[in-house]
Each structure stands twice: as C-alpha cells, then as structure tokens.
Amino acid sequence: MKVIEQSIVVILSLVLNVSAIKFNKVVRPLPVFRALPCEKDDTIVSVFQEGLKEGYNVTIKKELEPATNIRLMFDSQAAVFLEESARFTSDKDDIQNIFSIILLKSSSDFTFNVRGQAAPFAPPYLTSLKIDGEEFCNHPNLAYFRDFPVGVLSNVDRHCGRRKVLHTELIVQGVTTKAGDWPWHAAIHRHNGATFKYVCGGTLISKHFVLTAAHCASIHGVPVTPDILGVALGKYHLFRSDVTIQEREVFRVYVHDEFRYSTLSNDIALLKLRTEAVYNNYVQPACLWNETVWNRLSYDAYGTVVGWGFDQSDSLTSTLHAVNIPQIPNIQCIYSRPEFYGNLLRDGKRFCAGYTNGTTVCNGDSGGAFAYFVPDIANFKTSSVPGAWYVKGIVSNTLSQDASICDPNAYAIFTDVAKYLPWIQNIIDS
C-alpha cells in the first residue's frame, strides 16, 4: 500500500507540473517607445507602449521650482493625471482642452499622464506647453504616434471631419445629438427688424468659409447683402445661447452664377466670414467630398443630415437633430413622382435621398450637409472606428404637402457637392 500511495503522489506531482507548464505563459513586457511631442525641444519627452491602454507619459526635463505654472493644451478632448508633486489650479477648459497646473515642489523631471480614446483612435496630441507663460512647444508634432507600432491608424485627413469630444455614440435616426457631435454644422441667421432670425443650416469647410444652399443666401434669386446675415458656429441649442458658440459676421456672399430660383438648379453658395473661426472641440471643418473616398465606404452606407428642421409638430426643434438616410437611385426617385423629380434631376448635378415613410429633411434643414462617415479602415459601416465626415450634398428642396410645409413621405433633393469642387476651390483660393 505504501508503495502504491507513493506512486500516486509522484504521478499527481507530475500532472501538476505539466499543468503548470501548460498554463503559466511567460508574459513579455511591451516595448517602450520615446518621441518628442514638441519638435526642436528634446527636453520634453513622450513615453508610451503599444496600444496606449494606459495613455502616455510626458516628462519635462527642466529644473522647475515650486509654484511654477504649467499650461497644457491638446488638439482633442483629453484626461490628464498628475503626480503628488503638482495640482490643477482651476477647472479644465473643455472647449479648448486647456489644463493649468502648479508645482508643489521642485522637480527636474516632472511627469504627467495623458489619456484619450483607445487605439486605433488617434490620442490627444499636445499642441502647447507653457511654463510661467513662456511657450516651449512652438512646433508641436501631431503625427509621432503613427511612426511607432502602437496600434494608432495613420489619418491622412486628420484635420477635417473629425469629432474632438469622446462621446461618439452611433447616430440613431431622428434623435437628439450631443453638443460637439457635429462641430462643422452652422446656423445661418438673417436680420428680421431688430433681431436675427434663423433661416438655414450650413457647413464650415475652412476657417473663413461656410457652405450652404444658394436659396439660403438670396431672396428670389438675388444674393443678399452680407451685412444682413450672421453665422453661429458651435451651436447646439437653437433658441438659447451656448458657451461654445462663435458668432461671426459675413464679409461676402458667393451665390453660384447659374443659380435659378424657379428650379433651384445650381443651389449652392459660400459665405466668407469677416473673422476666422477658431477650431476647438465644438468648432471644426468638415471634409469636402471627392471620388477617392468611395473605396472606403461599404456598398450600403447611409448619409447623415443634421439640422433644427421641422419635427412632427411642424415646428423647429430646440436642439440639433440628426437622421440617417440612404442615397436613392435617380430613376427610383423619378418613378415615385415623375412630374416633380423628373425635371429636378435632369441636369445631373443633384441627387435624391431619404425615405417615403415619414423620415425626411424638412423646413429649416435647408443648406445643411448630407455627409458620409468615411472610415480609415475600408468597409466599416459605423463610427466605431476612426474616420472623417465628408460633405456629399447640400439640402436643397423636397415636395410640399401644402404651400409651406414639407411632405414627410417624399424624397429630398440635394445639390451634388462633387460637381462643384472646382467652383468652391476657386473661391477659397481667390
């Protein structure tokens, strides 16, 4: 018996050892990478690992005294974590992504941690680092993560069509959006006596230009004078002010020379702002459509239209809404109402989109963009991956169920932006 028991012990021991060998994998540490977030300054160093799951560290290798003030700015929403040797001096600026820090004791290698969305989304990049008011990041490097194998995608169009806030939930048809979801959407107002009245939507495409429909910038086909128009950027609530709003006067109105009010052909216009827009979390430009982005769209991609247009109660919505709608083949659109769509789609510079089930664009949505989300990775259908929003069309018109209200069961007509890219570029460059 003793011999047998001893054998069993040996066998069990061997089994346990084999199990240990089988299941106890060797964990290799991830390689550590270093880069300069501020070009031409090797005293500011970024340290990070693959995946950026714990964000990345920035170390300032300078002799810093107690009570030193450090001001950080990032290109998108960020979370900053400090050592015990420092504290924040005030609440962070969620619009400009600014953090103010004061040192509690001297340091020669002060380090802070920065976090944003997980890879493959591009992390927040440092764009400014001031120490006691002096700028030490005059040449920020906004691409260095792409040079290392850390899982961040290379975004060739990083500077347009991208949200800068972290709440990027999927858009559901006809529901309220959140502030910052559509930072390129603009509200166009027109003088109405002593006040401004909202008339149309528009899309910021550069620091000086807003794209909209020609009928939004004209009266019976005649361009309005710039001084009666106003543009509100970063706006979310239509009937009240937001701290994110940038109000701009219009310097010049460009209505397409071949715009025809009777048919709304060539229904496109540009508004040049008197003072430039300031890009931040809530004000960003959209990308303009080009044919190369088709390769990154799935065959059943939907476009999105944003606006304060009429809802089921036939009144303007108080907050910005969005709707996903499909682009419809012109022939299908024409067959639905030949007498209406046949003439409108004949010129080849417009397209049809929407549903015939009550989900549509309506009064107040005119001038806004029909935009596609184009993923950085081909064939992804949602914004769960990094990507940019491209303006494919401009809301032009739709059928009316009476003299003044849109027909919710009819397709909408959009100006095809791709057909006017030379015209747009020529004005922007002039």
The average pLDDT value, as a whole number, equals 84
Beta-strand portion reads 25-35%
Shape, per Cα inertia axes: elongated
Number of helices: 4
Helix content: 10-25%
Distance between the termini: 100 Å
Structural class: mainly beta
Q: What value does the Rg take, in angstroms?
A: 27 Å
Low-confidence stretches: 1-24, 168-176
What would your notes on this structure say?
The chain is mainly beta and 430 residues long. The protein is 10% helix and 32% strand. It has 4 helices and 27 strands. Strands 11, 20, 21, 22, 23, 24, 25, 26 and 27 form a 9-stranded mixed beta sheet that branches. Strands 12-13-14-19-18-17 form a 6-stranded antiparallel beta barrel. Strand 2 and strand 3 (56-60) form a beta hairpin. The longest helix has 22 residues, at 2-23. The chain is elongated.
